[in-house]
Amino acid sequence: MTHSSFQAVNEVSLKSLNFQKNDNLTNIYSYSDISQHSNTARVSAHALSPHIGAVVQGVDLNTSLSSDTIRTIRDLLLRYQVIFFRNQTLTPHQHRDFAKAFGSLHVHPVYPTVPDVPEAIVLDTDKNDLKDNALWHTDVTFSETPPLGAILVARHLPEIGGDTLWASATAAYDALSSQMKAHLEGLTALHDFTRSFPLSRFGRTADERNHWADVRNRNLPVEHPVIRIHPETGRRAIFVNEGFTTEICGIEQDESAALLSFLFRHLARPEFQIRWTWRKGDVAFWDNRITQHYAVDDYRPHRRIMHRVTIMGDKPVGPTHTIRS
């Protein structure tokens, strides 16, 4: 697919992304490698909003994908931050194998997993469960090396409701004033496992309490830059989230609370979002380094089952002048 024909099926031009050039990385300015592959039709992507989200067509994920196709999917992920595939029939093993094409896989320390596929967590919600993920969050930022991305497959859906929203943290950063950007780029924030995984919820039995204590001890609170630089595109993003961020380091508690409150509200602005209504066979793949997501909890007492495979990432890096406390 030529560069001009790729632009024709998208609402957003490449220039609007303002990526920083890095000659050591895949050339994300050009999509000339989006072409006919031996096992797929011509790949195309249709943007869903000005800042985030696209539907990818022409890829059957349960086939053996060529290296060109994998590279194309990765480039589309970098461009759109979350991409969606319709009408897929991935088994849990195929789900895992597809994710492995993009890196080593993470095994979650708390969530239940698919039998024989420990990399695939089960998000099973019904009337008997407490609310989970119904807040803006970035996955596993309590880790020193939060995930690169995650791939979510819809397994069982309620008749209505159960949408997921994603927000672009790069668009949120771009919308800040220059003065606020300068202020934030010198700060770090604390991310804590226990904020989303409290003992009161995940320690109902003695065995659960022992497991929770072991996980907590292996995942002590960690500092990350408030502004993160994407390792592949060079774009800057706000890297705090309601799920795990507890405080801004090195400032007074009331200052930290006020600043985090502002950032959480700012990140949740609808201008930076895409909302996805799930259908059977849908697959979502998001760049966890520069997005947040929110699972809408509006379908109780009906059931919703999703499988997620998470791709390991690297240590977040901020601007060179970031000061750690």
Automatic annotation (TrEMBL):
It comes from the Bacteria. SUPFAM superfamilies: Clavaminate synthase-like. InterPro entries: AtsK-like (IPR051323), TauD-like_sf (IPR042098), TauD/TfdA-like (IPR003819). Gene3D superfamilies: Clavaminate synthase-like. Keywords: Dioxygenase, Iron, Metal-binding, Oxidoreductase. GO terms for molecular function: metal ion binding; taurine dioxygenase activity. GO terms for cellular component: cytoplasm. Its cofactor is Fe(2+). The keyword DNA repair does not apply. Pfam families: TauD. GO terms for biological process: sulfur compound metabolic process. Belongs to the TfdA dioxygenase family. This is Taurine dioxygenase.
